[in-house]
Each structure stands twice: as C-alpha cells, then as structure tokens.
Write a structure and sequence with these properties.
Blueprint (H helix, E strand, L loop, with lengths): L1 H29 L3 E9 L5 E5 L4 E5 L10 E10 L4 E10 L3
Parallel strand pairs: 3-5
Antiparallel strand pairs: 1-2, 1-4, 2-3, 4-5
C-alpha cells in the first residue's frame, strides 16, 4: 500500500513539474528577445551566469557559454525575471572586442 502512495505522489509531482516547465517555455516564446551586454562568469554549482554592465545577474540557458567565461559578450535572448532569480534563454551571442 505504501509503495502505491509513494508512486502516486511521484507521478503527481512529475506532472505538476512538467506543467510548470511547459508554462515557462510558452511564456518565453511569447516574450520579445532583447540584446544585453556583460561578462560571462562561472556561477555556483557549475552553472554559467551572465552579469550585465549594470550589475544584474542571469543564469544562462539554451546555449553552452562555458567557452566564453571571462569574456565580454552581447547576448540576444529572452529574459525571465522571477522573484528570486533571473535567467536568459540565449538565441545568439557574439564576443565584444574591447
């Protein structure tokens, strides 16, 4: 009986997580892409983050930006600003020559 309850809870969690991710993707698809400039840095727990020239920090999604760590770049993508975190779904980027 206990295994069935755990399985049902796990499946409910899986479905709810899927719905939340799908809602976020749909919202990102409707948003207008923006271009921002800043530096790519190594974040906590192996993530890649992007710090804008005005001090905002975004978690990088959608592209492997690890080779650009330490470089100044212009990123075009969809910004997502939550209550506790920000992310950018990168569609394109280019290094800025200083």
């Amino acid at each position: 009986m206990r295994k069935k309850t755990i399985f049902r809870l796990a499946m409910a969690l899986f479905v709810v997580t899927g719905l939340l991710i799908n809602t976020g993707i749909m919202a990102a698809e409707k948003a207008t892409p923006e271009t921002i400039q800043g530096m790519v840095e190594q974040g906590n727990k192996g993530t890649t983050v992007f710090k804008t020239d005005d001090g905002q920090t975004f978690v990088v999604l959608g592209q492997n930006m690890a080779p650009m760590i330490g470089k100044t770049v212009k990123i075009t993508g969809t910004l997502s600003k939550g209550k506790t975190s920000r992310a950018i779904v990168v569609t394109s980027f280019e290094e800025v020559q200083e």
